[in-house]
Design brief:
single chain, about 140 residues, alpha+beta, 2 domains, two-stranded parallel ribbon, two-stranded antiparallel ribbon, about 35% helix
Length: about 140
């Protein structure tokens, strides 16, 4: 994600969070302005070679489209700011449910993985969030 911010076109295997982040320039079902790299499915030499050939071919034959892929990747924000905001909205929603916890204070710390308990209508939830520490 950091490399894309600086203009690197990613070549990734279709797995985990990468499947939700990198969209293939040739085969994705997204509009072209949302495509940002190359994806291969098979964990072998042929899969990687296919993605490399497509990437290098685009760079040689259509450099303007390659630059567009670069700028597509640079445009998106993959930081933890958006997930942190979603957690805050979630906590704001349940803030009035628990009467024992009055305030929610949040500080961002990229090196922490916090786990706190939140009690909602008698059910104890555990929240694990990287890059955000929630103190109830």
């Amino acid at each position: 994600m950091i490399a894309m911010k600086y203009g690197t076109v990613p070549i990734v295997r279709n797995t985990g969070g990468l499947a939700n982040t990198v969209f293939d320039a040739d085969y994705a079902r997204k509009p072209y302005h949302e495509r940002n790299g190359y994806v291969f499915n098979d964990f072998d030499n042929q899969g990687l070679e296919s993605a490399l050939k497509r990437t290098i071919g685009l760079w040689y034959i259509y450099p303007e489209y390659f630059r567009e892929l670069m700028s597509n990747g640079m445009r998106y924000d993959y930081s933890w700011n958006h997930p942190a905001d979603h957690y805050l909205k979630y906590l704001q929603l349940y803030k009035g449910v628990t009467k024992t916890h009055r305030t929610v204070s949040v500080h961002r710390a990229p090196h922490l993985l916090c786990c706190r308990a939140l009690e909602v209508q008698g059910v104890r939830l555990r929240i694990r969030t990287p890059c955000i520490c929630i103190t109830l």
